[in-house]
Amino acid sequence: MATIRPRRLAVLLAAAATALAGCGQGQQQQAAAPAPAAVTVANPVQRTVVDQDEYVGRFVAVDSVEIRSRLSGYLSEIHFTDGQMVKKGDLLFTIDRRPFEIVLEQMKANLAQARANLAFTEGDLQRGQQLLSNKTITEQAYDQRTQAKRVAEAAVTAQEAMVHSAELDLNDYSELRSPIDGRIGDRRVAVGNLVTGGTGGNTTLLATVVSVDPIRFEFSFDEASYLRYVRFATGSKEAESLHGNVPATLKLIDEKDFVHKGKIDFIDNVIDRSSGTIRGRAVFDNAAGIFTPGMFGRIRVPGSPPYAALLVPDAAIGTEQARKYVLTVDDDNVVRQKYVTLGQIDGGLRVIKEGLAAGDRVIVNGLMRARPGQKVTPQQENAAPPKGPNEAKAG
């Protein structure tokens, strides 16, 4: 039997020790392999929702009146402060009344003269009746006196109308009052200026009054949306709801939520040929005076009938180029990728229109630790978020 040299023996022992050490380290590494990533999963929330469409529009006043005088004359008084709220019937302007007082006195004098003439013709006719019975005057002369009385009666009627017109000029038209409740703008003419009145196009604009409460909101939407609304209303036998019963919500440019509630009260009967859009109008209460004609806002109106939908948190949705997806966990705790079609945000959750089932376990937390095809350790989350504001009431 061959004798092993001491040096060779030492080398063999060292190699064996190295091999044993490597084997032990491999077993330790295998034993220390990481566990599947822990993720939080939840089933989609099932809720009845209504799609909402949003449009940009502008507020307009329900009533807007330009204050112009019926009479020409010098402006003698202004009875309001620029921009103040006025009530229907409040005195705004006064035209110099003195010329109209003179005209009224003249018309009254003419009326008195016409009545005096009528009294004379009536007496003359009565005398003519006696003379005619005595054959003192001819029938022609009597007819002339009858005609004179009728002319005098017509003159009295005409002069009474002239007096009434002069009284209107003096008592009503020389004082300009607000025809509506609302806010008046600034005065356009100062006291002492000549005001041109009448009904023509050259009359002087004195001020403008616009109503404030309620107020209208006008917006436009495309032809496809109009057809969708009409067919939805017709299918639900609520076609009349397009004109007065459709609820709407609104937010201003400095607001985050649609907190103002109103109703659609009008949809135009003609689609604009140049833009292919049709005009809609909503009405809102404005007791606080926040809304002002000309102000921009964003309106939200129902865009679909109520339907059952699945919703997930927006944070659970991933993006792959132009496609959206969610990660789900199957029965073997393996991550699966599902492409979905998104809807609107409802109560803080995103509506999923296609691609997801009610029983799917969607990863809602730990999305960055999960990869399709890998195993995970799911932790079920059962707390459902609160119901959204657009959920239709049952029953």
What features would you describe in this structure?
This protein has four domains: 37-49 and 307-380, conserved putative lor/sdh protein from methanococcus maripaludis s2 fold (Beta Barrel); 53-62 and 214-302, Elongation Factor Tu (Ef-tu), domain 3; 66-96 and 174-210, Beta Barrel (OB fold (Dihydrolipoamide Acetyltransferase, E2P)); 97-172, Helix hairpin bin (Helix Hairpins, Orthogonal Bundle), CATH 1.10.287. Helix content is 28%, strand content 34%. It has helices at residues 6-31, 98-133, 139-173, 223-235; strands at 37-42, 45-49, 52-61, 64-68, 73-78, 85-86, 91-95, 175-177, 182-184, 194-195, 205-210, 215-222, 246-251, 260-267, 277-284, 296-302, 307-313, 317-320, 323-329, 335-346, 349-354, 361-365, 376-380. The chain is elongated. The model is unreliable at 388-395 (pLDDT under 50).
Key descriptive features of the protein:
Elongation Factor Tu (Ef-tu), domain 3, 28% helix, disordered C terminus, 34% strand, 4 domains, conserved putative lor/sdh protein from methanococcus maripaludis s2 fold, 395 residues, alpha+beta
> Residue ranges: pLDDT <50 for 5 or more in a row?
388-395
Span of the ends, CA to CA: 100 Å
Number of helices: 4
Summarize model confidence as the mean pLDDT.
Answer: 85
The helical percent reads 25-40%
In terms of topology, how is this protein built?
Blueprint: H1 6-31, E1 37-42, E2 45-49, E3 52-61, E4 64-68, E5 73-78, E6 85-86, E7 91-95, H2 98-133, H3 139-173, E8 175-177, E9 182-184, E10 194-195, E11 205-210, E12 215-222, H4 223-235, E13 246-251, E14 260-267, E15 277-284, E16 296-302, E17 307-313, E18 317-320, E19 323-329, E20 335-346, E21 349-354, E22 361-365, E23 376-380
Parallel strand pairs: 1-23
Antiparallel strand pairs: 1-22, 2-17, 3-12, 3-16, 4-11, 5-7, 5-10, 6-9, 7-8, 9-11, 12-15, 13-14, 13-16, 14-15, 17-21, 18-19, 19-20, 19-22, 20-21
